Amino acid sequence: MATLITMPRLSDTMEEGTVASWLKSVGDTVGEGDILAEIETDKATMEFESFHEGTLLHIGIAEGETANVDALLAIIGEKGEDISMHLNPSSPQASSDTTTEENTQQTQEVEPSSQAAAIPEGVEVITMPRLSDTMEEGTVATWLKKEGDSIQEGDILAEIETDKATMEFESFYTGTLLKIGIQEGETALVDALLAIVGPKGTDVSGISLTTKAAPVATPAPEPAPVKETPVATPAARVIAEAAPTSNPSQRIFASPLAKKMATDKGISLQLVKGSGENGRIVKSDIENYQPSTLGVAQYTPVGVESFEEIKNSQMRKTIAKRLGESKFSAPHYYLTIELDMDNAMASRAAINSAPDVKISYNDMIVKACAMALRKHPQVNSQWTDGMMRIAKHIHVGVAVAVDDGLLVPVLKFADQMSFSQIGVHVKELAGKARTKKITPQEMDGSTFTVSNLGMFGIKEFTSIINAPNSAILSVGAIIQKPVVKNGALAVGNTMTVTLACDHRTVDGATGAKFLQTLRNYIENPVTMFV
After folding, report:
1. Which of 29, 241, 436, 529 is the most buried (most CB within 10 A)?
2. Is 503 assigned a catalytic role?
3. Which domains does the chain have, with CATH numbers?
4. The whole model's pTM is what?
C-alpha cells in the first residue's frame, strides 16, 4: 500500500521547506533509513531519511521548489502500484485522505496563548518539534541541560523519542534555559511547550502554551535498538545505538555519521574518546582515532581543518577543458610493452662520445615514433564527425611540465630530423615553455604526442590523448632487472611504454603493429639510420 510522505517540520519554527536536492529518483528502490532528499529549512540544510521501504513512485516537490510543511513530498509503495487516487484531488479517496489529514492537523494546532503578546523581548518559546513525517507526539527521554544552564546555538538540549527513533534535539538560540515544559519521561503532542530560552533572570512564569490534547504523562519506554543508521542532520540527529562498555549503565553518545564510520572501519565506539558536547563522539573523533598499543593510552591528534585557495590560471583552465573533452569524448584504450634497452644504451653512449654531441633517450624515442608513424599512418590521424583525417606530415608534440601545468611544444616534420636536431629543438622549445616565451604557433599542429616521466623514476603510466591526436605514448624509466637472454638468466635494462589510442580511429591491431615497429627501432637503433 502506498505511503504518502509530507514535508516534515525539521525545526520548531519551520513553516516551509525547500528541496535542495533529491538523492533518489522516481523508480528507485528505497530502504528504511535511506536518505531521500536534502531539505533547506529556516535554520539549515538537513538530510531527510525514509522511514519506509518500497519504490519511490512519485516526487511531489521538485528540486529548488519550496512548499509548506505537510505538503506532499513523495509517495513510496510497491513497484507499479496505482497512485492516481493520491494525485487526483477530485477523487473520493483523495478527498477522504485530505479530510483525515486536515483533521489530524487540526488536533495538533496550538491554541494561541492569551499571554502571547506578553512574551518579553529576547525570549524564545521552543515547542515539541515534529522530527519525522509521521510523528504525532514525542517523549522527552533525557534532558542534557537543566533550568538555569547557559545555552549556545547548536547545543543539544534533549533526547526526544519519536515514533521512529530517539533523536537529539539542538537549540537554535543562545541564552539561558529559563523553563522546561516537558519533563523527562513525559509525552506531549507536537507543538506543546518544550522549553523557554532567554536572557538570564527573565520572568517567564506567565508564559504558557497549551494544545487541545493535554500532554500525557507516561514513563519513557526502554529505547529499542535502532535498525537503521541514519545520516546526521543539524537539527535532528538519530542517536547511535550504545556500544557495550565496562560500565553497563554508561551510555555512549555518538552521531550517526560517526557510528557508520566506526562500523566501516571496524572501530569499537567504547574505545573512542568523544570530543563533542558531553563527550559525544563525532566524525573527527573517528577520523583521528589511533588504536592504543599494549595498554598505552591512545593519542588523538587535534588540529584545524583548512584549505588554501589558489585561483585557476588561464593555462590551468585550458588544460582542464581540453583534457576533459579528450577523456570523455574519445574512447581510450591502452597497449603496453616492455623494451630491451641494452642496445639503445650502447648506441647512445657511442653517439655521445663524439665531441659536442649529446642526445637523450627521449630524443631517440621521438625519432623512433616519427619513423613508426610513417609506416602506420592511421595512428597519425584525427577524428571528425564526418570523416577521419590522416595527416601526411608528422609533427610530434613533446609534453613539458611547467609551473602552471603542462605545455606541448611541437617538433614539425620530426621524421626528417636527426637525433641531435631533435635534441636541440626540444631543449629550445622546453626552455621557452618554462620561461613563458613560447608562441602559440610553436605549440600548434601536433599529430602525435610523447609524454616522458622516466626522469622522475616512474616505471609506467597512462596519458590522456592530446586532442585532436589519435594517440599518445607514455614513456617510463629504464630499470635494471633480471631477464632471460639466449635461454640464460642475465642482468638487463628494460623500459615500459604505453600507447593510449582513440578507438574511433586506431583499432587494437593497428596500435599493436605500431608498437612492434617502435620496438624494432628502439631495440635496434642502427635501423633508424637506414
Report:
1. 241
2. yes
3. 3-108 (2.40.50.100), 115-217 (2.40.50.100), 314-529 (3.30.559.10)
4. 0.47
